[in-house]
Amino acid sequence: MAAIYSLYIINKSGGLIFYKDYGSAGRMDTNDSLRLASLWHSMHAISQQLSPVSGCAGIELLQADTFDLHCFQSLTGTKFFVVSEPGTQHMEGLLKHIYELYTDYVLKNPFYEMEMPIRCELFDMNLTQAIQKDRVALLAR
Q: An example of a Gene Ontology BP annotation on this entry (predicted)?
C-alpha cells in the first residue's frame, strides 16, 4: 500500500492546476478532484480568518481515520497538498521539495502561463522520482 495517495496543486485563486493519483483504490474522477481542491482552498482561507492566533497560515494538517492531508502554502498563495496514509511523518519536507521542483521545472519554463494547468514533462519525471524516493525512505524507517 502506498504511503501517499494523491498530490494536488492549487493556484492562488483556488483553481486546481495539478493532480496526480498514487493510490490504487478509490480513484476520483476529474469533477471530484476539482471539488476537493476548491473545498480545501475555501477551508484553508476560512481557517486563516477564524484563527485566534494572529498571522496564522491556515490548516497544515488534517487528520482523519483513513487519511491525513498535509498542506504547504507558498508565499505566492499556491497550495500544495498531499493525501497520505494516517500517521505518515515528514510530509513537510516532501511538500517543500515538491515546491522546489515546481519552481525549477514549471515556473522557469518559458512556455508555462501562470495560474494555468501544469503540463511539464520534466516536472512529472522529477516528481515521480521524488515520490519514489520518499516511499523508499518511509519503508526504511
A: endoplasmic reticulum to Golgi vesicle-mediated transport
pLDDT digits (tens, 9 = 90+) for 77-136: 999 999 999 988 889 999 999 999 999 999 999 999 998 999 999 999 999 999 888 766
Which residues, 6 or more positions from 102, have their beta carbon under 8 angstroms from its beta carbon?
9, 78, 80, 118, 123
90 phi-psi bin (left φ>0, alpha ψ -120 to 50, beta other)? left
- pTM here is 0.87
The answer to whether residues 45 and 58 touch, using CB atoms and an 8 Å cutoff, is yes
Instruction: Assign residue 62 the CATH number of its domain.
Output: 3.30.450.70
- Taking alpha carbons only, the member of 8, 35, 34, 11 closest to residue 19 is 8
Residue 59 has pLDDT above 80, yes or no: yes
